[in-house]
Amino acid sequence: MGWSAAPRHNVKVAIALAAVAVAPDLDLLIGNHRGISHSVGAAFIAGVVAAAGWSAFAPSALRRDTLRVALCATLAWGSHAFLDWLSNDTRPPLGVMALWPFSSEYYKAGV
Fold first, then answer.
1. In this predicted model, what pLDDT tens digit does every residue of 10-62 receive, in sequence order?
2. What is the C-alpha separation between 77 and 79, in angstroms, rounded?
3. What angle, rounded to 10 degrees, do the helices at 66-86 and 11-22 form?
4. Is the peptide bond before 101 cis (omega within 30 degrees of 0)?
5. I need a surface site. Which of 31, 32, 41, 66 has the fewest CB within 10 A?
6. pTM of the model
7. 106 contacts 96 by C-beta, under 8 angstroms
């Protein structure tokens, strides 16, 4: 999903977005899979971090793309949470904590 908003399309962008899209599964390292990292709040935080990193380290001529980079990161992270919401989760708690920080409930698609 982040690819559609990317300011450029090349291998580096594809690798970066793929890394962002799988990053929510890093929660497996702490044993709290499909929790806060699989939420709209975490996707927003990923976008803020991407924007901060881009504005700090990108060449000045490319800093105009900061909002697009943030949007790409948010969409890439959010796509992971969305696809996990659609998946067939069989281990409790069922679903993903999709609406954190607004709710700590777990949600699972009915399809």
1. 888 888 999 999 999 999 998 888 889 999 999 999 999 999 998 998 888 78
2. 5
3. 50
4. yes
5. 31
6. 0.86
7. yes
